[in-house]
Specification:
By secondary structure, the chain is mainly α. It contains ten helices and no strands.
Length: about 180
């Protein structure tokens, strides 16, 4: 069984969240989407920094998303004096990532869930969210997917499932910010 098959139930659960449906409808406000980006930024930033300490992203030049997320946020967020609130799950996720910072195998499971999502379903989301959608723009998505697949294995399933659970929690918590 492949990692994709082993995590299918958790992936499907994340995709079924109301917040994802709002994104796919294409009528999300710039403020709501910027809040979502602001919540994604610290999670991607820490994950990518720790992955870089292990050399996990060396041959994945176009994979880091943190700068693109920050640019998308800055494009959409109007209140330059204040930042949006962080959802409680962000701290939970950061704490978890710090607890596995010495385990490149587990970190790569998070790259698989987050970055493969951006490379796949993110391509459809990019057409429906406000702004440029830099977070979802890659030079060669098919090549990146291939390179990520070469770095994963079925033993990452438990950690990947956990990452999907964090994503699901964020989607649920973001419903409090829809079209504020």
């Amino acid at each position: 069984m492949s990692l994709k098959e082993l995590t299918k139930e958790h992936h499907t659960n994340a995709e079924r969240q109301d917040f994802v449906k709002v994104m796919f409808k294409g009528d999300m406000s710039a403020k709501t989407y910027a809040t979502y980006l602001w919540n994604q930024f610290p999670m991607y930033e820490l994950l990518e920094v720790l992955c870089n300490t292990h050399g996990l992203l060396l041959d994945l030049d176009d994979i880091p998303r943190r700068n693109a997320i920050l640019k998308d946020f800055e494009e959409l967020w109007e209140d330059k004096e204040n930042k949006p609130p962080l959802c409680p799950v962000v701290k939970e996720y950061l704490d978890h990532i710090m607890s596995i910072k010495h385990d490149p195998h587990k970190l790569m499971a998070h790259v698989y869930v987050r970055h493969m999502g951006d490379l796949s379903g993110g391509q459809m989301i990019a057409k429906r969210v406000p702004g440029e959608g830099r977070m979802y723009k890659f030079n060669d998505p098919d090549l990146l997917k291939q390179k990520i697949r070469a770095k994963i294995d079925d033993y990452m399933a438990d950690e990947a499932k956990l990452c999907f659970e964090f994503a699901t929690k964020l989607f649920k918590q973001m419903m409090d910010h829809v079209n504020e």
